[in-house]
């Protein structure tokens, strides 16, 4: 057990910054906070709860695994983080739906290890994509897209798409909490804008039988509402010699489709930007921060007075 414990501590300490582990059954993500002689302290991302994982408990689980393979689904919630860390030691691994000793296991590799790129939360991804887009806009002339080289033009399209998609998801996540706080005629004001409750109705027909019966009750001819069903028409096209241009008017539109995103390259670029920001911690940057704080204070005063 001494060798396995040493391997767990070594691999836990050498995890790449930002990477997390995921519990095998419940899928809870956690990070290693600190490693001590008799314990490894982890923090769960979904609750910020810190929990010590004790060496003696690792020994109990190791003894159980030494007796044979254990079904992953049988792992209890309290055992899951222990099992995830054990698979880093180069002694145990997962095959199929079971975890057990494997002489071919590779230290530092685990099916429960999540890379820093994938471990980011949705707000973090939006922040990172917006930062990359802002950095790109600083060094290109986006007012004249046609003058750009192909590489930056492609990056402009991809990053704009990622920011739009991510920001929209973030916007939707903020919608329900805001609706809970908004009364029928109430407006809420933030620093950057105002929101109010809006009701929009969307109509969809009831089932055919109900609609047709209602028409009959009012003496309305059914033929007035009956039309061509596109789904049924497609079936007819597929099984007869009827041609598409005989029953469809086809309008063709050409657009650019994003087919892939290199998240690893984006993350690598982010690390470079973060390093440069850290290097700005000098008198000039401090002066700039002070100036920005003063501007924000003046804006707050103006908004309060207005």
Overview of the structural elements:
The structure is a single chain. Strand 3 and strand 4 (50-54) form a beta hairpin. The strands form three sheets. This protein has a five-stranded antiparallel β-sheet with strand order 4-3-2-1-8. Strands 5-7-6 form a three-stranded antiparallel β-sheet. Helices cover 49% and strands 13% of the residues. Helix 5 (122-139) packs across helix 6 (150-181) and helix 5 (122-139) packs across helix 10. It has four domains: 2-116, no CATH class; 119-196; 208-247, no CATH class; 263-305. The model has no long low-confidence stretch (mean pLDDT 86). It is built from eleven helices and ten strands. By secondary structure, it is α+β, with helices and mostly antiparallel strands. Residues 278-305 form a coiled coil. Pfam families: DUF7983.
Using brief descriptors, characterize the structure shown.
4 domains; five-stranded antiparallel beta sheet; three-stranded antiparallel beta sheet; alpha+beta
Low-pLDDT runs of 5+ residues are none
Oligomer: single chain
How large is the share of residues in beta strands? Answer: 5-15%
Bulk shape: extended
| Overall domain count | 4
Instruction: Please bin the fraction of helical residues.
Output: 40-55%
Number of helices: 11
First-last Cα distance:
69 Å
Arithmetic mean pLDDT:
86
Return Rg in Å. 29 Å
Determine the structural class based on helices, strands and strand pairing. Answer: alpha+beta
Largest sheet: spatial strand order: 4-3-2-1-8
Q: Summarize the biggest pleated sheet.
A: 5 strands, antiparallel
Written as H for each helix and E for each strand, in order along the chain, the element string is HEEEEHEHEEEHHHEEHHHHH
Q: How many individual β-strands?
A: 10
